[in-house]
Amino acid sequence: MTTRADGLDELLRLDNLLCFALHAASRAFDSVYRPLLRDAGITYPQYLVMLTLWEHRELTVKELGRLLRLDSGTLSPLLKRLEAAGYVERRRGTEDERSVTVTPTAAGEVLREKARAVAGGIASATGLEWAEASELRGRLNNLIAALDAAAATQERSNTVATQERSNA
Questions:
Q1: Which segments of the chain have a pLDDT < 70?
Q2: CB contact at 8 A, 90 and 132
Q3: pTM, entire model
Q4: What radius of gyration, in Å, describes the C-alpha atoms of the chain?
Q5: Phi and psi, residue 127, nearest 5°
Q6: Which DSSP string corresponds to the chain?
Q7: What pLDDT score does 7 carry?
Q8: What are the pLDDT digits (tens) for 97-123?
Q9: Which residues are 89's β-sheet partners?
């Protein structure tokens, strides 16, 4: 990017930051989701858990965390609240008690009907046609993959640098 004549670096302008545009879009989504999900009786993170379980039917907490990009410290309280509401069941593994499997209950399946209205409301609110939304989602998935790769490269570099300092 170029620098403006007045010296303000275009890279440092809030309106030019892709990350801020994504952050603002996420907050805008939240403001549309909130009333729709309130009617369903769940929060957005709980909605994501339920969507994932409806799709996969049964997952370990570890698999669920990986798919949702949530750590166990965030995911466990969500699952406890969903279980208390009667929407999911958690079971410890018989072979490995550290492994916990999560499945939707009958009440969780009933909630799925309410979720259809939520999804329809969000689709309508975006103002995007299905093809446009699909293309945008694909581009965002490519962005996520590129950022994940960059983060992994940085992590490897930091690990090597730390090892070199400790060996010196």
A1: 1-8, 168
A2: no
A3: 0.82
A4: 21
A5: 75, 10
A6: -PBPTTS-BGGG-GGG-HHHHHHHHHHHHHHHHHHHHHHHT--HHHHHHHHHHHHHS-EEHHHHHHHHT--HHHHHHHHHHHHHTTSEEEEE-SS-TT-EEEEE-HHHHHHHHHHHHHHHHHHHHHT--HHHHHHHHHHHHHHHHHHHHHHHHHHHHHHHHHHHHHH-
A7: 46
A8: 788 999 999 999 999 988 888 988 999
A9: 103
